[in-house]
């Protein structure tokens, strides 16, 4: 018992906020109890004679160690009240979090025990309520009080790195203290109690390259000039230990993989100083001759290399480019090679970095130089022609077998093999030419015609005798020269006319000629009239000297009435070595022209047309006359057709015919325009009212409708009218609608119809409208008419006849 109390006193010393509730009383609080004690009060039937006294016990919180591993329940504390005299008259009860399951209380002694091991990280405290009651009556001896049992933390959780393992990167050659990254470990223990959650960081593996701050966990470089090319990846083991790193603390570790990122701190270097390459002389321009490479220990863009040929001997024949994938230098052929001309080339190539870092300029120049020697290999080549192409001329109709030229080819190799010549048959399908296989002379094999083919393009093949596989070709163009074999002729058929008003010496037509021949110096034509020397002439030919001539009038006063057409012969000569000539005839028509010489007409019938009007104007006048005649005829036809048509001649069904009267009423105040009472009262129906939907027959007298004089019933009236229509022999042979409008009479109240009431309204005088000025003159004329001058207005009526 003494040992347990001492433990509790030690815990109270560690936590200044806590209090040893089972052993101290709180002053100032009283508990009411019986003067004779609780047991006596219970036995005496619950006497009410109590007196307030000080409370004999009070508590704030208890403590219980977590992770208790003992075999007996862990003692927590003791509840006791001064009212408990040790006579077993007081019973202690416990309720709240874990009461009965985790915590239990001895009802007689008030001892509290924990039934199982507790974990502070699962639940740090429990809130319970305690009360002292009479053991016999269960009457509370004092009010219920609440207290807390706090789970006392022990160092049972090690620090943990929740995000490990980690990956970080830092540039190579970084100075000491360069920040790498920060790691953080968490401890689930109570940070407010002791050092159980105070974590200290340290490096277990990774020194001397890196260091870690023991409090913050920041990792920094600890060694200068770490070179990626020496070692790129570092694995650092970091430990986090609680209890401030003291002996007995729990620890957790994590791994950090730190990579040194590359910087351009290494220049490119050739693996050797001289590169030997060989290339055949037959290599094509632009082909790859060889490859060289300068190695750079850096990576990425820091290892990109640029190659350049240093100007000097042999450098003009080659070029160099960089392969972006493997950073090799590809040497390309820039000009054709010839073993017989030059057998070897030597030049220098410089390799340098494309992206430089100014921080490392003190390391030296970031470039390297190597020598390239290229040996040209001799290749058995085909023969080479003396010219890239040949051009030859030959006159047409040249005799067969005439030599027109020659081609020459030779073997430039050391063997100097003889060459044989041939014509590619695909270029000379008709075999116009032949070639001597040894000398290379080309001769005609057929007669040539310039007018059929003016130019021949053939291909000559040269073959080495000792290696027939090696051949070369050259293009030969043969121009066929023209000879004068075709006479000239007029360039086109001319349509020539002369105006009646033409004057003497007037040029009425310019002519030219054409020739199928092709003289070397161009065409030259002369024109003349074969009628020269004849005294009476109308026209002549004037040669202008530029391959054209003009038709000139020799007189005036041409008349179509006397002669309409003239024929003029023309003689044309060319300027060839053997002059050829031809004659042609121009047809000249006499035409009428206006004052400025523009053609009007060339027909003889136009002579008798009125002077001053052109053909177009006369045609327009005739068209207008025809249109006017058509309009007049149509108008007369329409007028006659209207007279013949009846009222009911419509293409539509005449049963649906509605007759419209285009009479405009005078408005509400117009009481004289039409008497609507005639439609309702049969007494006022006019006698001479004929049907307008049929043509009236002669001798047929109109029927006077019988009005109901004695106010007969409307049904009798309708029956009577229906019989009249049924017996009407002049009715149309189709159904029509008959409207029987009848308003009864004899009512004491008279008629209520607005139509009937119109008749009795007095006439109104509208003469005052004339005094309103000229603006109302038209209105005064409309309303100023008197009823005696008004004409009867007849409305349309559609009847339906039932058969």
UniProtKB/TrEMBL annotation:
Residues 24-48, 783-803 are annotated as: Disordered. Residues 1-20 form the signal peptide. It is a single-pass type I membrane protein. GO terms for cellular component: adherens junction; catenin complex. The chain crosses the membrane at residues 607-638. The keyword Calcium applies. Coiled coil: none annotated. Pfam families: CADH_Y-type_LIR, Cadherin. The gene is LOC113094796. It comes from the Eukaryota. Keywords: Calcium, Cell adhesion, Cell junction, Cell membrane, Glycoprotein, Membrane, Metal-binding, Repeat, Signal, Transmembrane, Transmembrane helix. This is Cadherin-12. SMART domains: CA. Residues 81-161, 162-270, 271-385, 386-490, 490-608 form the Cadherin domain.
């Amino acid at each position: 018992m003494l040992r347990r109390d001492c433990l509790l006193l030690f815990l109270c010393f560690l936590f200044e906020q806590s209090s040893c509730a089972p052993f101290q009383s709180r002053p100032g609080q009283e508990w009411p109890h019986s003067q004779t004690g609780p047991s006596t009060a219970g036995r005496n039937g619950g006497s009410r004679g109590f007196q307030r006294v000080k409370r004999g016990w009070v508590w704030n919180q208890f403590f219980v160690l977590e992770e208790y591993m003992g075999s007996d329940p862990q003692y927590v504390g003791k509840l006791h009240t001064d009212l408990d005299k040790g006579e077993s008259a007081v019973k202690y009860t416990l309720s709240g979090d874990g009461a009965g399951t985790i915590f239990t209380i001895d009802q007689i002694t008030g001892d509290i025990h924990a039934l199982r091991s507790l974990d502070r990280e699962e639940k740090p405290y429990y809130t319970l309520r305690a009360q002292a009651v009479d053991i016999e009556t269960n009457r509370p001896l004092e009010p219920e009080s609440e207290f807390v049992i706090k789970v006392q933390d022990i160092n049972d959780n090690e620090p943990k790195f929740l995000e490990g393992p980690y990956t970080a990167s830092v540039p190579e050659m970084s100075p000491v203290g360069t920040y790498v990254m920060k790691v953080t470990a968490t401890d689930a223990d109570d940070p407010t109690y002791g050092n159980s959650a105070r974590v200290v960081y340290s490096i277990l593996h990774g020194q001397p390259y890196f260091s870690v701050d023991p409090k913050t966990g920041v990792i920094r470089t600890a060694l200068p000039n770490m070179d990626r090319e020496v070692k790129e990846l570092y694995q650092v083991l970091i430990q986090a230990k609680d209890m401030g790193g003291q002996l007995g603390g729990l620890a957790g570790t994590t791994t950090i993989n730190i990579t040194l990122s590359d910087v351009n701190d290494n220049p490119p270097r050739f693996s050797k100083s001289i590169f030997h390459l060989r290339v055949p002389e037959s290599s094509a321009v632009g082909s790859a001759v060889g490859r060289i490479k300068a190695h750079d220990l850096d990576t990425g863009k820091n290892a990109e290399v640029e190659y350049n040929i240093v100007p000097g001997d042999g450098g003009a024949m080659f070029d160099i480019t960089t392969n972006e994938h493997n950073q090799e230098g590809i040497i390309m052929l820039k000009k054709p090679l010839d073993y017989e001309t030059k057998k070897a080339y030597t030049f220098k190539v410089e390799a340098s970095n494309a992206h430089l870092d100014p921080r490392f300029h003190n390391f030296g120049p970031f470039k390297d130089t190597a020598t390239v020697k290229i040996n040209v290999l001799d290749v058995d080549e085909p023969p080479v022609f003396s010219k890239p192409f040949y051009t030859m001329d030959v006159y047409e109709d040249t005799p067969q077998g005439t030599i027109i030229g020659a081609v020459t080819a030779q073997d430039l190799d050391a063997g100097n093999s003889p060459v044989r010549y041939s014509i590619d048959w695909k270029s000379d399908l008709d075999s116009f030419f032949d070639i001597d296989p040894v000398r290379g002379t080309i001769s005609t094999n057929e007669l040539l015609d310039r007018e059929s083919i003016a130019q021949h393009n053939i291909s000559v093949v040269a073959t080495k005798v000792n290696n027939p596989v090696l051949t070369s070709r050259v293009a030969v163009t043969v121009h066929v020269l023209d000879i004068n074999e075709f006479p000239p002729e007029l360039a086109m058929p001319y349509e020539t006319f002369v105006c009646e008003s033409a004057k003497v010496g007037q040029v009425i037509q310019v002519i030219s000629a054409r020739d199928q021949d092709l003289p070397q110096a161009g065409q030259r034509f002369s024109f003349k009239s074969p009628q020269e020397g004849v005294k009476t002439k109308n026209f002549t030919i004037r040669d202008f000297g530029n391959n054209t001539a003009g038709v000139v009038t020799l007189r005036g006063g041409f008349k179509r009435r006397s002669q309409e057409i003239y024929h003029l012969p023309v003689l044309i000569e060319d300027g060839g070595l053997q002059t050829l000539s031809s004659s042609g005839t121009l047809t000249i028509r006499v035409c009428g022209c206006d004052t400025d010489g523009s053609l009007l007409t060339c027909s003889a019938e136009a002579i008798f047309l009125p002077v001053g009007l052109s053909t177009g104007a006369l045609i327009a006048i005739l068209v207008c006359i025809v249109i006017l005649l058509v309009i007049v005829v149509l108008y007369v036809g329409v007028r006659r057709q209207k007279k013949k048509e009846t009222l009911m001649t419509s293409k539509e069904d005449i049963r649906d015919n509605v007759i419209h009267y285009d009479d405009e009423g005078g408005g509400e105040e117009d009481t004289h325009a039409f008497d609507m009472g005639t439609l309702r009262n049969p007494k006022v129906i006019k006698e001479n009212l004929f049907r307008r939907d049929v043509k009236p027959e002669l001798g047929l007298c109109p029927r006077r409708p019988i009005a109901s004089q004695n106010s007969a019933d409307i049904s009798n009236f309708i029956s009577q009218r229906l019989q009249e229509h049924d017996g009407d022999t002049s009715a149309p042979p189709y159904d029509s609608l008959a409207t029987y409008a009848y308003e009864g009479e004899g009512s004491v109240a008279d008629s209520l119809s607005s139509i009937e009431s119109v008749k009795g309204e007095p006439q109104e005088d509208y003469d005052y409208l004339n005094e309103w000025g000229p603006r109302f003159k038209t209105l005064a004329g409309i309303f100023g008419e008197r009823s005696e001058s008004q004409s009867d207005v007849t409305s349309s009526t559609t009847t339906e006849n039932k058969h």
